[in-house]
Design brief:
homodimer; Rossmann fold; 2 domains; 18 helices; elongated
Chain lengths: 449, 449
């Protein structure tokens, strides 16, 4: 299959040269448009050992202004990476709007390695494939261009290259044991590569198999696809993305207005007693969490002045300070705004055994961003599913996820606002926006779908 | 896998009743919107034998005005259907805009049957999966809502139902041999079902596995998904669909203006001689085509007055009249316009061993429909890929496809127009539109991409 999938016949030398020049010029010219239209471009380069992935990336970026690209090389996961969700390091490396990121191998390589060395079960493989499909679709839906190249050489060609590199003291180091192993088990590896590509070959992010026999020819194939892809992505740029059905099972949630808030108050004494007991229990659990390497994510949402801060404080009092982080989520910074809206949450995840507490969360997409018009209607509608997919990723990883909505009624909120306004040391806590939202009681209709 | 994929827990009787009533009312109310917005809805109902597919469809359509739906039941392909491309009967049954079609089993069943009885090779299975993915994506991209339900019952439940139906003279006929066989080989079949659903479970057309233990509960699950799907499709209604990269290998075509038209004329004598010889050869080939059951599709495009009609006549002179059909393609009729733009070509395909000649073709989408603004820019841009996918389907089927562009220059066209205008018996051949296109020399820039 890998062979027959070639898309192009290698042209004669002169034609190759001419077409290469043409494509290089196109790429050079189009980078301005990429910047203008704020298109983020992720290029995944996978392939056989010694196929020339690094060289290819080197040639391609030669045509791009160095301020507009970065490269990210992924080897076996580091100790830290092993403690994070599978997609974490790839999501974290996403390019900003208007820039390129070239992945020198990535999520394909990680999965395929696990298949080849037998460490990845069928069930885990399927989970990974599902994750990858969601990940790639989310990128596209959120305006990324994703191009996936597989650099292909034959068994003989690989053997020839290995022998040649081995024969020279200066190049010997470039051959890894795994390259040699791969060549000896070429057929097995080929089957696994093929299966992976079949499983992740979607219409909007297809695989391009590159005949990697020569450097120039590789570059031409990649440039032609890259330029075509950029052209199409620029055409798609202002289009809204169709919504899809949310396939996640959802629990019916009560409406906020139906939640009884009266008659639930504790006496100070009762409160102290319960708090002590529960904090003790939490401390103990935090220890076990750490030993068992379970990641814990606590998400706080709720009305302004509902008391999220105080609540978080009571939780953290019980935790070992070396094992948790609190992330107050305000408006995104420019570098955050230039990426997938979930990027700033992906990059703030705890490592396993640790706790991350979010004071406001990714649900901002369907609340404040919706209300304030920071994203389009299509964006926030689509986000319900995307958020479920994000949480599914965390759940697959083994995280415990707890989401709190802290509820107060309108009168209580007004009372607290007024108190804040009138107490000099609390005035920083209250803003124009808070007052605006006070009026807007339909602010949070969509929670839990 | 089938079991764990349940999306919902069966509610208690009272809640089930209430939710069912609610969903029935929603469907009843929403059908007006479907009509208004001209949304076509295709519902595929697959599942185990005796799972109650027919009953389910019966219950669902009870909530819809009979003018707005049809049902299509598919058994083993008939002799005619066997002579047509795989997707032909499913494509032909597509609902019009504003209406429902319920497929009582469909393309899944056909593929899965081939896997179960061992008649379908791995390679053919993969080809079918690829066809189905393209088919389903094209439906969605062209504004269809597609919902796919799998009615699931356990091995024991199926056995119980079979025994019960068999025990009664009045219901005995409802049990087929294949139901009994299926129950005996439940595990094998389950694996094949699962694999198929995994292979075709896409974000925009996911599989819904319906717990088919009870009729009302089945109906509720289907109605909830159906209503949700309709709601989302109505929201998507006015959105343009992002373009995707064309993954088909394409040959470079010369520009029309670069085609030399001079110095190619034959003398009358040469012409007669060559024509005779070639017509004789064609006659012979038509015979072999018929015996080998190869379908032949001849597509004519070209400038008005280029002489397509005469050309076609010279071809058909050589053909056995029982073995070909000529399809003049004019503006689509209302019932054609209400469907996928390729529908009128799908339904005009020849059976194998026969010839279909199209006088103007599906390329109208990227020519006249583009020029006259009959479809949006997004529609015709997307069509390049869709047309390639259509032709790939025909190629997979084994068809020979020949596409002619009949070229004349502007002066020759003007000459012929004038002649037509001045010859009473030819005046029908010339219209306002022809004159308009005469001016428009950029009319056909996109051919061959």
């Amino acid at each position: 299959m890998l062979k027959s999938a070639y898309l192009n016949e290698k042209p004669e030398k002169e034609e190759l040269k001419a077409r290469l020049k043409e494509q290089q010029d196109i790429l050079f010219a189009i980078q301005q448009k990429i910047k203008e239209k704020k298109l983020p471009v992720a290029v995944l380069v996978e392939g056989w050992g010694t196929a020339g992935k690094g060289t290819l990336i080197g040639r391609v970026i030669n045509n791009i202004d160095p301020r507009f690209y970065k490269t990210a090389t992924f080897g076996a996961p580091t100790d830290l990476e092993k403690r994070m969700p599978f997609l974490w390091r790839y999501f974290s490396a996403l390019p900003e709007a208007g820039k390129f990121c070239f992945y020198n191998t990535g999520w394909m390589n990680e999965v395929v390695k696990g298949r080849i060395d037998g460490s990845m079960s069928d069930a885990l493989y399927e989970q990974r494939i599902a994750s990858i499909r969601r990940f790639e679709r989310q990128l596209l839906d959120n305006g990324y261009l994703l191009l996936k190249f597989f650099m292909h050489i034959s068994e003989d060609e690989q053997k020839k290259r290995i022998d040649k590199l081995k024969g020279d003291v200066d190049t010997k180091w470039r051959i890894s044991d795994s390259d040699i192993w791969q060549n000896k088990h070429y057929k097995e590896c080929e089957k696994i590569y093929e299966q992976y590509m079949e499983d992740t070959d979607t219409s909007s992010a297809p695989w391009y198999i590159i005949d990697a026999k020569s450097e120039k020819w590789s570059e031409l194939q990649v440039l032609e696809r890259l330029n075509e892809g950029i052209d199409i992505a620029l055409q798609n740029h202002s289009l809204a993305v169709p919504l899809i059905q949310n396939v996640f099972p959802l629990k019916k949630m009560p409406k906020l207005q139906d939640i009884p808030l009266e008659g639930k108050e504790l006496t100070e004494e009762e409160y102290r007693e319960k708090l002590d007991k529960l904090q003790g229990r939490l401390e103990e659990l935090h220890n076990r969490l750490y030993r068992k390497r379970v990641p814990l994510i606590i998400a706080y949402e709720g009305w302004d002045a509902a008391g999220k801060g105080g609540n978080i404080k009571r939780v953290t009092e019980a935790l070992d300070p070396r094992g948790y982080e609190v992330h107050p989520i305000a408006s995104p910074e420019p570098h955050e705004k230039a990426r997938h809206y979930l990027w700033r949450f992906w990059t703030r995840l705890p490592k396993n055994g640790h706790v991350a507490i979010f004071d406001r969360t990714w649900y901002g997409r369907v609340m404040v961003e919706r209300i304030e018009g920071f994203c389009s209607e299509n964006d926030w509608k689509r986000a319900y599913n995307e958020i479920n997919e994000f949480e599914k990723e965390l759940d697959d990883w083994g995280a415990v996820i707890i989401k709190f909505w802290v509820q107060i009624d309108k009168d209580t909120q007004l009372e607290r606002f007024t108190e804040r306004q009138n107490t000099p040391e609390k005035q920083w806590k209250i803003t124009e926006e808070d007052w605006r939202h006070q009026v807007c009681t339909v602010a949070y209709p969509g929670i839990g779908r």
